[in-house]
Structure formats: structure tokens, C-alpha cells
Amino acid sequence: MNRNQYDTDVTTWSPQGRLHQVEYAMKAVELGSAAVGCVSKTHAVLATLMKTQSDLADHQRKIFRIDDHIAVAIAGLVPDGRVLSKYMRDQCMNYKFVYDSPMPVSRLVVGVADKSQRCTQFASRRPYGVGLLVCGFDETGAHLYQTCPSGNYWEYKAMAIGSRAQSAKTYLERNFEQFANLSQDELVKHALLALRETAGTTELVTANVEVVVVGVDTKAVELDDQKLKEYLDSLDNSTSGADAMQTS
Fold this sequence. Notes:
alpha+beta, 5-stranded antiparallel sheet, 40% helix, globular
């Protein structure tokens, strides 16, 4: 992306009505490793593909637990994601202290979207270079939201962000209509299958995959390695079975 005279700060409009620094921040989201979210009537699932800077480094975590009923997956600049996650945790704690009840997912998402949008109004700031998938379960059911650096937010039945997200979206668009009535296990498998579409030649293993589930009578919890391995093995078995049927 080439520089131009209209991208020196975030408040300068181009003649085409564009804010280039906001677009650059959204490009950072597209370059981040993929995150996938799915939601049914009773559960919401987030799955992310973690990357490592070198063989000597650990994989960078992409999912943050916000409260007992909310978790968030990020794509883009991880430090920006940590800042927004801390803000979301503070908002949940303040709401619980004042109202003695969990914060509604939609209210939290509006708050973090407004915080992102304020960074597009002042030349002394820059947009957050991170996109969020926020999943949660409250008194109105299971929810999945996406926020972006511009301050926009949307609610989805299934969504993918980050690198090669279009491949995952294609899978989700083919299958999302059956998600509403799926069990937790089936929903997790669909999330992993969509995530696998973004992985290319990278094999999904417990070291580079992170999954969190939240739902009815289920607090936001990250799957441990043993449970995650069972899901990944079931994907391999189902793929092998499908290949065998095609061969015969």
C-alpha cells in the first residue's frame, strides 16, 4: 500500500471520502492469523490459529477470557487486542459491581466499538489495528459479534476474520443454516473445519490451535489439550472416511 498526501493522520479525508489510516488498520486485521466463530441456540464457539515468530518461541495466544460468560478472539496486532481486552474486563467488573448481574454481551460490544471509533476522530491517536470476534451467552441467548478498527460492529451466526478468512467464510456460508440446533461438540467440529480451510499447508495440532466454548450452564472455558486433540482426531477420521467412500 503506497503512501499518499491524505494518510498523514486519521482525520484527513481523501477526495474519494476515505480515511486511509483506518483502512490501513483494517488491512492489519486481514494480515493477522485467522479466527473463526460459530453460534447455536445454546452455545458459542471461538477457534483461532496461533502463529510463532520462530522455532524458539511459543505460539502467540489469540483468545482472551473476558468474564464467565464472554470471550474474545483477535486478528491483527496482539498488543492492541490486549489493551481492548483489559478495557472489556474492566467494563464487565464495573457493571457487575453496580448492577450485581453479568453484563449483556451487546452492551459490552457497543462500548468497545465506541472506544475504537473515538480513535478515528483525533489526529493525536491512531486506530486500533485489531479486529475482534466476541462470543458470549446472556439472558437473551448465545451471541457472536465482530468489531473492526473503524468502530463498526455486527452480529453474526458464524464469522471468520484474519488471513485467508474468505476460505473459512465459504465453508461457513455452506453450513451455517444447521448451526442453530447443533450440540456443543458438533459446533466445535464445524469451527475447526472452517479454521482448517484457512491453514493452507499448516497442520492443525494442539500446539497451534486454541478453542473456547461458552453456553448454557457452561462458563467461558478454553479446551484443554486432551479434549482438543480428540476433536482434531475426529476431523482426521471423518476426512479419511470421506476419502475412502469417494475412492470406492
